[in-house]
Records
---
Amino acid sequence: MSMQDLNHPYDFDLSKHGWIEASAGTGKTFTIERLVVRAIVEEKIPISSILTVTFTEKATGELKDRIRGLLQNIVDGSLAEGDRQWFEEQQRKHGEQEASKTFAFVKESLDRFDEAAIFTIHGFCQSLLTEYSFELGRLLKYELVNDNDLLETLIPDALRRLPVSESHLLERLVRSEFWKVTHSGEPRLENTVRNLLRMLKGNVEPRLSSASEDSPMQIVLRMVRSIQDNLTRLKAERGWISYDDMILHVRDALCPTTDRFKDQATDRATDQKKDPDTSRKLASAIGERFRFAIIDEFQDTDALQWDIFSACFLDSGRHVSRTSDRKSDDRSPRLILVGDPKQSIYGFRGADLNAYFRAKKRFVALTEKGEAHLYRINRNFRSSPEYIQALNAIFQSEGYPWNVASGDNDLAYVLKDCPTGNRWEGTELPQGRRPMNLWRPENADGAAAIRLAHARHICNEIRFLTAGGHELCKDGKRLPVSYGDICILARSKKEATGILGHLRAAGIPASFYKQAGVFESVEALEILYVLEGLAEPARSSAVQKALLTRFFGISIELIQAMDELPVDHPFRERLQRWHELAGENRWPQLFREMMTVDELFALVHADAGGWERSLTNYEQIFHALEERALRNGLDLIGIVRQLKELIREGSLEEEETLHKQETEEQRVRVMTIHASKGLEFPIVFIYGGLTEGTNIDFFRFYEEEHPVIVPVPWFDPDKKELDRSESGLRYKELHKSFARAENARLYYVALTRAAVMCYIPTYRPNRNAGPVGTFLQDALDEAMKLSPNVFAEVRDQHQTIASISRSPIDGQSTAQLPEPVLPAHLQERKADLLSYSSIVRQRAERIDREELDHDASASEVILETSDVDVQPTSLDTIFRGAEAGNFFHEILERLDFQDDAFREEQPSDSLFSEDVYPSLSTRNRSLIRRKLDQYGYRTDSDHEGPVVLLLHRLMRTQILPGFRLCDLKPADRIHEMEFVFRYSENVAGIRGERFFTGFIDLVFRHEGRIYLLDWKTNRLPAYDRPHLDEAMRSHQYDLQYSLYARALSGWLESRGHDPVAELGGMIYLFLRGVRPGASDGIFFETASLEEVSRKLAREIGA
């Protein structure tokens, strides 16, 4: 059945169920918010009775803000033209009295907006469990837990109980022919078990063989079932419930029939024995409660969620009118499903595209009966007409595997229309660039060399775009291309991390969007559980969760018998000991003891693949907590609250971080394609994806519209007469077809993030080709023939950076050297990560802890407030202390050194005005004013003038013979260069392996030599050499630059350069004293590596 084009939300028929396919960039959220407001205005449905379900917490927040804003515009009379016409028409349809009632109802909806039912699927199910707890047969009070946290204890516990040793089992697996044809590399049983548990959720058929009872498969299968049983029992006994349990409980209460592939563990987990009548009554009650339901991102749903929505809004016994004339007493619920099957990319999270198509078949049937409409939104409002032409050429090509992606279902790409107005009208692309730009590697052999060449190309192209006077024109506003206009999309986090390292090494400001931080790790949750157990020792569930962590390593049986253990049992004594330390706020001792317990070391070290990462996470979290506790005087309750906040912030969908990056500084955004869904950028680079690995843990595919998994190395029991290798090859081909379909959708998402330009690598590897190296190349070859005017091949014609300063080791950032290797005995030796500031703190504990982390340190403030007779300038009186240091550092990190204004004659302090620097670039002026505002200074000439004057002097002063900073090109400098290096075991009298970390303010190249430079904002009595020498000595800056020189020489040496010959020296610029034509404020020391080594050996034993 054909679909109607939905050109505007006001064309949607509210009287029927609705199916909306909204392609990328077509204004899906715009449509949803207007459908909600229409239900309020046209049908007087209360805001609390309109259900909207979307995919993420970030999306729910955005939707709430936009719907509230639209209602506010109605009340204020400030609607946009199209919305105003609709509202006025609605008011004219009825009499004046009815119009007044409508306006009052809108205002009431706005006043009661906190009742709006806008949820994620988990939030929706949680609200049902609360509101209908009796009908659902659930506890009124329960505690939310994460299944993965519990499995971290249950899986190792089950492995220890295997009837055969893990090594013996793995030997038997590796010997099988099936393994050899399906897998490369060594198997890890724990990962296989963990993935199997994850993938057996939902409506998935586990296809396992019926081999002998002592076969490896049966042993693992019994262990998986045992883990599922223990997980279910543990949660039931403790009153715990996970988010996934919520969905299962609700679905089973509404749909009591058992699925074809529903496993026994799920049956036990839900244990709902509802009869059909009870379920229908519950569904009817929910349908009456929510008379209007919109389900967003429906392509990312699964069979369980579809069961819930269909039961409540399609099968609850009420049917919508088959005409468009709805009677006021017609209270039948309406269901609107909004999605795009081409953007279904979350299969690894359980999204089931076949559930989407089953739902569509149901809506087709409803449409045939006159109870629903099928709509398609086909206008792309995001991109320029030329870029839309390029997308159409790619996605309509026969080379793009939509047929593989959709199978028998309708997933054809429909050519996108352009709206009447072009948001990007006036944008002129740089010379030689087109909407779709293809890059081919030249003289690069091998995957690693190609990745490196591609990374260099991206860095060079970003410099070309941001430094060449190129502009974007959006909605009539013309602005220069900035870093914030650019996004780099990678297929995996590993690839994203690799390109991020290259960007940082090239001095290009960049950030990793949605990077999983240390506070998102299992280790953070384990520490939280222990601290909560210490904070609430009388709450048994809190103590039990603490005991389940690796800090105790207690089996389930022992936890169940915990109440019977004597008070002198080691675990009870440990809890009591830690409780006392926490009660006395002895955080360093508590965290040190937690890090050195035998159980933690044994369990973490048993994870051969991730023990270093786990221990590093523990150390970083403890360090962060200790620092905050000491700085803020936190007690145990306070530190628990602080950790919860850190975890919450670390697991957000990055909306707050993203907002700060957009409003405070411009950075290139690096992210995975999965993380980019729903976002848009003017310019996008596609990185990686040319090759892919060959390891397969599970074969995944669909049969008869149901998802099937075959855990490697098992085979299909229905085909056991075949040779195992034949069966393995068959499953591998089915899996490859499934993966190809997912990749087709993934790169549709990637290419539709751009609005104006996109860059794609074009190359066909000889082996292990990835999606970019296979079907995307086929599609591009065909598309270039269809629309050659919107494609261009881009070559590296503007390489300005020598490999010495811009060529990090492949996949690693220059600023991120290899992680430390943990010593064999954790109890005796522990790796510490120290910095210059931490060493100084150990020598001068009387100095304020926090301020020493900044260049404008506490000792610098002491110098500022001394009795020396100094004539203060406006700069000295306004910009003082540590905040001033941070302020100037952030400006200098982002300043355009080559601004023409820095080459003009220097004015006096009193002459500063808007007219003195007429050519000061918009970029620099905006940067200065933004930072003034951010740090609480005024943005008038009294505060802006001294800053511009200081920068003017700084840029024009010769800091080396014949060299000024305003002559330093971006390609020859790196700001905030991060480093880590190892040094000896005896530092400041503390034993243990040590690593030094820090940031060098500026590393630059001049006449073939490399220099390090540090900015200082100290106010000194004078800035001649004797006073500079005294400042360097009193603040131990000589130790600082020695450490920096050691790190920089190691960096050069690791890249095949001679640090003795190429390291030029160390420069410290005291900003307040620098003047053109004089040497004041400039401290320079030549780089004698022998002297550096002697100083470090003498001072810290390095």
---
Amino acid sequence: MNKFKDFIEIDKKFQNSINLQLDIDNLSKLNSYIPTHSSILVLDGFLNNVLSDRDKANILIGPYGKGKSHLLLVLLALLNDGKGDITKRTINKIEKVSKETAEKIKTIQSSVKPFLPVIISGTEKDLNKEFIIALMESLRKNNLMNVAPESDYGKALEVIAKWKKDFKQVYESFKQIVREYGRTVEEFMGELKEMKEEALNIFKEIHPKLTAGSEFMPMTVNNAMTLYGEINRALESYGYGGIYIIFDEFSKYIEGHEKDTFAYDMKILQDICELANNSKKQQIHITFVAHKSIKEYGNALSSDIVNAFKGVEGRLKEVRFVVSAQNNYELIQHVIKKKVSDCKPWFQEQNNKEIIEESYKIPCFSGLFTEKEYKKIVMEGCFPMLPLTAYALLNISEKVAQNERSIFTFLANDEKGSLINIVENGSEELLSVDVVYDYFQNMFRDSISLTNIHNEWLKADYALTKAESLNEEKIIKAMAILHMINRNEEVPVRKTEIRLATGLNMADFVSSLEKLESKNIVTYRSKLGVYAFKNNVGVNLDNQMNNMIEKQPLSLNWQEEIATVSELDYVLPKKYNQEYTMTRYFKYVYMTPEQFLNTSKSEYLFETYKADGLIICLVMLKDGDVNQIKEHLKELNDNRLVVIYPDKIFGFSEQQNIRKLKAVEKLLKDKDFLEENKVLQQELEIYKEDLIFEINVELEKSYLPENNRCKYFNTLNGVTELCFENQISFNRFLSEICLSYYEHAPKINNELINRKSVSAQIKKARNLIIDAILNEEELNRFEKGTSSEATIFRATLMHTGILKGDSSEEEGCRRIIEEIDAFVGQCAGKKVSFQVLYNKLLGKDFGTRKGVIPIFIAKEIINLQDTPIIYLQNKEVEISSSILNNINERPQEYYLFIEKESIEKEKYLKVLEELFLSEELRKKQKSKMQRLNNIVESMQRWYRSLDQYTLTFTKQLFEENEQGYLEEDAFERMCSFRKVFKGIELNPREVLFEKIPKAICHDNSGDAVFENVTLQIEEIKKYMDNNLVNAKKKTAVQVKSIFGARADESLSACLKNWYSKQSEKSKSHIYAENITGFMTYIEKLTTNDEDEIVSRLCKIITGIYINDWKNDSYERFVEELTYVKNTIQSIKESEQSTEGENKISIKQGKVQSKDSLNLTVTTAQVISFRMQ
């Protein structure tokens, strides 16, 4: 065979990446442009922007090394001149790919004036200054400096030149000062010409020292946006149609920018973008060049930078430079020049032939190329690279390439590790993937932000230190590259793909891979079916694991450990679920034979494991007796149980995997261990995944029917061993179980409501329906629309026929309604727990989902002729959607009672409504379920409005012949009636139909009693309403009697007449508080209202109002009032005796004889007073 260098030529036009600033006038770079469909599509878009005067601010996004800069170089050449020979050749090349684009270029050349190209590199700290410098540089290159306005820098140079010519002494002082700054005048002026900000600042400091304090303030334009606008207008007279700005390497600018000045620079960019978008005849275009959008940086950029960029981002149109995979391979084909005939010896070599043919079967090639295209573009075009080497080069360069290292530099740069270097060094073997690893490995090392790539490099770099042959190194590097690419759907890191990437023959590959495995360098990840690196840095993991395992108990709870890790979780009986439009499921449960045999009732299992059926996987730790299992299953007699009896015991190897898994989980929870061995966390996570996978593989082998390693038992057709070919036949059997056990389940086609637990949103919708039903509102508003409540209403009540209640009723729903009706029948006249109903609806034959039950209950309750009462334990509660929701959650706490209606009860209730209900409540027209509550609530309100005396007295105040007297039997009934309402929380039904009848008639059985109760309540209410009024009347008559007046005389006149007859001495006498108060009140009495007078007298004489009297208050009042009257009348003017009296003299001023006030104090009363 020849050597590659004998017939392969690399097109060196590709050897360097494009630097727009350096290559803008490089015609050879323009000549090396290879048009592809992808690049022409982008170029066409930019040309359209110029022709249609739109989208003048944009950002071109594409991976490194894909030709973005090259494309823009071509664009600038076409827009700047476009009349040279090389430019014409480029247009011809473009025309071969797209005639339309070529025509647009010709239109621009003939009708659009050239654009001045400006390249921004983003290397200056001050972006405003960078834009100005870049514009000045472009003007200089294009001999347009006379267009440029004066800058501060230019003005400074003019001043220095003037000093040198006209002010020699000043100039000499200037030279001396500049030397103090470590510069010569020539160096300083050179810095000003380069527009260095430090030099300008120094000049501004120097200027006042040399000019008697005057500041350097030239009137020049220093704002980039203003400058670009002015120069763009001026360029029109020089034959230019505008300015085209390219901000190259914008991604690097973003990544390396200081956070402090970023917001300021973004304002500059925002202004320039606005200037571009607003430009008209003289267009300004700006294109940013980036390898990814700002959003794709994720957490790599601070939120401050991301937020600051948003103002710019909104003004940019995003243009994606998408290069098709096929175009990429074609690019390689264009770079590597050779004759296919010279390559044939390598294609015919047996191992190479096998590798090339097998490689086409990999999805990355078979999904992209036909076999003919694959041979031409990949096999022949990418020669001497193996197919996967070309694939790796394209994908790795896309992930990590920079300008100094890219697909083009690999192909055409003559440097260590490049294709041209390998060819020139006389290589004779097809290049395997390891050459890609070698070329880019420094970038892998430095790409710390690319976590996956850097981590894979770390593992591979460590693994290479353990490799003992070139073949082992090839395998390690190939694995690393494929894991970095991380596209398992295209190239999984399996044994076959690794071998095709290395180019090794089968024997050498297998031998080397086995050695790497034996040395614990690589490991097979069973879960994913791929090979990966095993990281052994820092600790001997196996020893650590063994130490953890030794500390575990000898016997673990194996069934629980298996259940925790098992991926055999639920099985959905598909046929049944489809037919009944719901989701039932069977749950896998792991038990030892002993646990199963000790289960006395299947209900215990279903209380623990909430499911429609259970698949009990027996965990055999030793040989067992299958007949015992069958016999016990027969005793349990529950068709919902399927028992799986495995042929193989759960032995040491299976137990050891569980132990390893527990050890790994414990290490992952050990913060100190992970802190000391950070590199091991990822390996432990991977190891954990693999252990879980391996355990589940064994479980599937033991318990899935297609593996024929277990026996199935069920009682549906007698306890016989069942045979299933696969999961499909097993699933059909589970549907048969459901059809048998849940035969009459309602078919409701809405899984949002037809389920055990509904979401908060669906519950809210259900509440709207229930409340509308209970309040007897119009339901037609739910019959149309797409709201949750409308769809649920139609699914549960309309489509099932329940709303109409005719023969169209869905069979299962009809039976549910019948069960609810039967339950209601049980509740007539007695409390029955809702648990009774729910046991029936949720149990055998129905298995109703809880979500729909409250709607059906509400509908049946509202249709009752009788009155339903719901109890929470012993307390009556108002029937509402909230209560029905609570019943749904805790049916054992709630009870239903149906109060049978009758004519007598109805009359009784109507009388009570007339007696007690307010006008407001009558107008509300509440439902009958709230009727009882309203009546009792109104009676309670009436009761609480009564005075304390009426509510508490137990001894009649009146004699038989007096108004207000009540027969003793009636009085007892009144007292009993009052007791009913003493409680704070009353159960309305019990109050009305049990407690009141019993209190009044001592009998609450039979409806006939209500006629008598009605009459008695009317009498009692009338008596209690008038009791206080009658008490006041009687008291007034008694007061008149005490003071010597007739019953028909005025009480006010009687008292005032008596008062007028008392001695002056008695009026000035100081008495006890009640006597003094009495005399004061009578003295000032003006009202004739006897009720008011009696109330005040009671308060003054006894200290309590008549409203608050007790049984003996009347007698006490009469006694005290009589005493007061007698005491006052005993004080006479004519009496000379002063025995038992004390005299108090109150002096005013100094003369006692004239200004003294003498008060006589009767010592018979205990008094106290204070004078101020």
---
Amino acid sequence: MRLSEISIRRPVFAWMLMTSLMFFGGIAYLRLGVSQLPDVTFPVLTVVVTWPGADPTVLEHEVVDPLEEVLISVHGIKNVESTLRQGVARIKLEFYMDRDMDAALQEAYAKIQSVKLPTDADRPRIYKINQDENPILWLSLAWDRPYKDLIRYVDLNVRDKFLLIPGVGDIQLGGWADRNLRVWVDREKLNRWQLSILDIQNTLASQHVQVPSGYLEGSENEYSVRFMGEARSPQELAQIPITVRGDISTLPVTGVGGGVVWSAPLHIGDVAQVEDGLMDMRRLSRRDGKQALSLGIQKLRGYNEIEVAHRVRQVVQELNKTLPPGMDIKISYDASRFTELAVRETEFTVVLSGIITAVVCLLFLASINSTLNVIFAIPTSILGTFLVIYFMGFTLNYFTLLALSLAMGIVVDDAIMVLENIVRHFHMGKNSTQAALDGTGQIRFAAMATTLSIVAVFAPVLFVGGVIGRFLFQFGITICSAILLSLLEALTFTPMRCAQFLRHAPDGAFAKRVHGLFDRFAQAYARLLQPCLKHPWLIITSSGILFLFSLTLFPKLHTELAPTQDVGMILLRVHTPVGSSLQYTAQKIKALEDFLRAQPYVDKVLTAVGGYYGGETNEANMFITLVPREKRTVTQTEAMERIRTEVKKDKELRVLAIDLSQAALSTKHGANLELSLQGSDYEVLRHKSQEIMRRMEQTGLFVDMDTDFRYGVSEVHLIPDREKANLSNVSMLSIAQTVGSAIGGMRQGQYTHEQDIRRYDVRLRLVPSQWSHPEDVVRLNVWSAYAGEPIPLQKLAHIELARGLVTVTRENRRRAITLYANVKPGVSQGKAMDRALHICQEVLPAGYQVRPTGISQTTQESFAAFPMTLGLGFVVAYMVLAAQFNSFLHPVTIFVALPFSLTGSLLALYLTGHSLNLYSGIGMILLMGIAKKNSILLVDFFNTSRAQGFSLEQAILQGARVRLRPILMTSLATVAGAIPPALGLGPGAEVRVPLAVVVIGGVSVATFFTLFVVPCVYRVLVRWERRPPGISPIEETPEALEHEDFAASSEGWD
């Protein structure tokens, strides 16, 4: 017994099945997460090593090269990229999408532990997060007390509260400096006591210690033994005695007895100032022009962005109630707001699509009861799909919601076909139960064929790799689930409801007009089709020429990864000249801040000078929040152009504007164009990159051009005289350690704060006033065992001023330079990238190569994936249809509609001015499935009519007339479902419109050509196929056609 027969004969079972789908689907909807894009986990690990004072070249040789040597062998690794800056090395490990990141983390950690790094370098830290990702929120804190107190308070009372929030992965820090116990050594006092700074270093190493010393085991108790030699406060550390090599007679006298002078011991506090302070300030942050501390909340992959942001906002509200007087915390930047608005707007679009689809069905069916029967497919299919989305671990995002919006017009198609066929059998005089059984049985094959043909199109998505493959996967699973559930609904619930409620009832005036209109339209269509069937090759040839002509629209369309969305936020990355101090950069940025705050379209400005995770003092990140879109007269793109115009007034500023709506699609800088130049000679790369940028600028296609190559920072090179050093018995290591401790601020252990019980570094350094000029380096003393006294370093070495590298970038163990730029507004991103690659190939010598990275790489992968997906979809769909029709030729006839769906989509994009992008490409893949539905309806009826004994021409004419109404209904229902997203209403409309426009244009044009071209192609191809046994042509009679006419009755159903 078939499922449809079970539903008809056991209606309570069918009602319970339908109710359970909707009930549990509703529960699943309430539990679904929300995000702007599918929560795709970029398989990235980041290894960070800090080594204060180490320049990029030293880091490259001593830290990065040995780490890369072991890390590149980690299983599943795709790319290794290292960025080296003063004191910080970051190694980003990118894996293939199918790699288990937990296992990769463990393997990478084990590899790192096997590498021996310099003792002065901090231990490597490995993060299961891409630190290039932009935070979803930026918080800013200000206090009317000293900045040091603000950092201490945040460190003890604020930061951990946000890290404990489920879904928060890490916190980027703007204007932050770690707490340290600073030992500021006075060089003049050292010279007085004939000490070098290494004496203080050795004193701390030997006198400031705390080590476990075993345990004592008695007969009843056991005791652990710990040596408590660490100072517990700055005051205690200042009282640690040091060894004096100078004349003890100059020491302060504490008492005289027996003619002997007793001298008090010399303490660290006598030659240095000890304070509970901060590391050197290399970063600062400002909120609306005033100094503040900023916290960037990064979300862990796999967590709901909206929920994480909501929890953060709750914590902010709670903290503001408990903060000390004069301190406040504000949300200065919130990317989740746009995500929430855009997703909610897309949900509204889904509902509106369902309403418009219902109205279209009502206009065609001219019966409220019939319409209700059809649109029951919408809640059943959509709510059931929420259940699938929930168990697949998807979120409500652009791709899943757009799939549901477009599915609104598709899920009713099967119900329309089944209902129309049941009603037709009912009008033949059968009772409602028999009409439901016969009508469903007759249409079952066509319904299954049309549904499976759509599902087959998305099967190749499983073979598409990368982030685009994951996005397509969620879209495909969602729409296929909705369509398969609509098939279940059409073959079970629809016939069940027809068997229960289908009744003879006279049509009203409106229904009679609708039926009369379709009768006349069907007759006109049949009259037009007859001459076409007499000259099939003329129709086929002319249609083919029109299709080929439409392909000329391809080069005229702009191509890009995704349309720029007006998210109401702009991220600027600004650079001042290489070598600029923190204060100079802050001064330059202040003028830009003042300009932005004076603009009516700007709401908030949050600035972080010095970057994050070891950024340079000549760079700044500016997070600009615009006023709501309805309250400003300029778009985000126009605002960005005005800002660029202002920046150009200062020749020392370079700016890169990040499109935050696309930043999540890559793991790099976020620019529209990113190219990695690789080669053996770094100097050649430097010159060639400058030439490439110059030639790109001449094209007028790009803005915000820059590279990550930074050269020209001032360096002081200390050149030792080895012979003099050897004669004085001074080693190179001793000189290096002396300079490193005095200038570099070396870490000399840790101490535990007596109040907050936390461990902080102890750092030794000269007082700031004694290391502000290059000559201060050689004014240090180094101990000479030969002379028995300190020797001025200027006797053993001299200084040279030079220019060095600020940043070194490596890719797969080779030095590289990344060139990045934004495409000028109004310029095709694809054409601009092709032009840039062409320039690179012309400029780079043999042995050097260029590779797209970031968004450029994602764009290439996406446009490479679509042809493969379309091709594989074509093959899979052909195999499915060939198996269903048991014919090699009928699928060819069905596929005739596909080229015209492409024609319609290209024409729609061209006329509306939209680009060919990720979303419009998904629309074309979808068209591969839905454009075949009408052809399947026709070919199936043609075959059925021929099997009943009709001649070829009779079968074609009759099938075309009978199937005209369901074809128009299903096509217009699909178009109706796509109208709301095509209207471009609300946040996120920029990505919804291209997909909807493609579907509307493709379905409309394909439907028109299907009605005329498919019958002609069928007439031609069927002659090549052997006639099935038992079929012989019969004469066409009016009675035969009337018997099968779909609109013979004017009665409805109640």
